[in-house]
Specification:
Length: about 240
């Protein structure tokens, strides 16, 4: 008997996601570009995108160099951006940047914080929300941010993937608050900071239930970019996630 189209199993949609604090493109740009080219992410979640001098033009320049489209980012992007292949861009349902209020206690607390997110249609049915974020240096502000992320997850109505510079390890207050909703499939030993000799995992890609993880790790080198060169591309190492939806 031949199965009807309704009963045939759907093929999984495989995505490769890379999250990276790009240090406002102040590092070794050639190493940065070659790393992304070697890893070939479908989606690149950026923190510390250019903010001060021609931010939109500089982000467009970087996107052209790695042959990706800007889904979110540029002027007003609060230092966040999401870049993707043309194939992923064609699946965008909604996109935007949500500001997250901060308590100003010192100069570093004036850095604008937020959540950049895109909602993608999953081929064959359903959706997924992919987000880039950069938590604050102050614990109280990280908690405000975590509450915002939790609301995003609860209201998404779809699996959620959040990648970013979280500025704390898994035992931090914000991470513990988010743990029932968002897990780090790479564990705690895939260190990302400082780039020259990583001892802490403060960058991660977190996922909700409904995301099948095939690989999750910190990146310590690629085919063309050895570890020493990678350390000069940014002050953080990138973190990689391969998933099936």
């Amino acid at each position: 008997m031949t199965s009807s189209p309704e009963t045939l199993p759907r093929e999984a949609w495989d995505l490769r996601i890379l999250a990276w604090n790009l240090w406002e493109l102040r590092g070794d740009l050639r190493a940065l570009i070659e790393t992304v080219e070697d890893l070939r992410p479908d989606v690149l979640l950026i923190q510390e995108a250019p903010r001060f001098v021609l931010p939109s033009a500089r982000l467009r320049w970087f996107a052209r160099r790695i042959d990706r489209r800007i889904l979110v980012g540029g002027a007003g992007g609060r230092g966040l951006a999401i870049l993707a292949t043309d194939e992923i861009a064609a699946q965008v349902i909604r996109r935007g940047v949500h500001p997250v209020a901060q308590t100003v206690s010192d100069l570093s607390s004036t850095y604008p914080r937020g959540v950049a997110a895109v909602r993608l249609s999953v081929p064959g049915g359903g959706a997924v929300v992919v987000s880039s974020t950069h938590l604050a240096l102050q614990e109280d502000n990280r908690m405000h941010h975590a509450e915002h992320l939790a609301a995003l997850v609860r209201g998404a109505g779809a699996p959620v993937i959040v990648g970013g510079d979280l500025n704390e390890t898994a035992d931090g207050a914000a991470r513990r608050f988010l743990a029932p909703l968002l897990a780090d499939p790479a564990g705690t030993d895939q260190h990302t900071f400082p780039a020259a000799a990583p001892t802490r995992r403060i960058d991660a890609i977190l996922v909700t239930d409904g995301v099948r993880v095939r690989q999750a790790r910190a990146v310590h080198g690629t085919a063309r970019v050895e570890e020493e060169r990678l350390a000069g591309a940014s002050d953080h190492r990138p973190t990689l996630l391969d998933v099936s939806l």
